[in-house]
Design goal:
Keywords: Membrane, Transmembrane, Transmembrane helix. The protein has four helices and nine strands, in the order H-E-E-E-H-E-E-H-E-E-E-H-E. By secondary structure, the protein is α+β, with helices and mostly antiparallel strands.
Length: 236
Amino acid sequence: MNRDKKTGILLGAVAVLLVIVVGLGVFLIGMKLGQKKGESRDIAAAEDLPVQEETPALTRKPTAAPTEKPTPTAAPTSTPTQAPTAVPTQPSSVSSDSYRIDAGLREWTSQGLVFLQGDYITLYVNAEDYNNGLIGWEANAEGDSLKIYYPKAHDSGHGGTVVTLMAFDWGENGYENFPNYKIACLTENKKYIAMFPTDVQYNPNDSVQAEEYARLRQWASNIDQDNSSNPFSAHE
């Protein structure tokens, strides 16, 4: 009787132990399966995420430092001069055979002035002096110069030249050797030069001649292309 009881107790203990072992095994297996499922979900979630491309770091090239200092523009140190007037270079349309400075020269009076006007030139003088015989004129044989003179001195052998107007073709510069001259006027084909005498052209012992000649020379001194009161002009 006692032996059977002990055997039953032992068998019961073995059965309980088996149940515990089996339950523990089932529990461990379940945990391992759950861990694998969790890893699978994490992997799937990771695969679904967009892959972020790697952005390269921005680089900045260093600016090269200048090797030389810029040279400042120098300020002008002098006042510019006016450019010379351009000189026409075309050949003359008036041949030396047909041109005469006194061509068509005639006189007419207007507003107290006497105008000597021809085909190529115009010269005005004081009407009172002209009418009183204080102004005379004559062209040379070649017809390229016109002398304005003081008749009283001229007729008494003292020259009397007040000014000589000379026509030069472009390219002729012989007047540059004259001791006293001015450019009277420029045209497309001619250069007109006013040449003034440098010696006494009247009787120095005659006070009347001295006074009248001085007045005429003062008038003639205005024959200058740069003078707004220039009494001489030329045309073609």
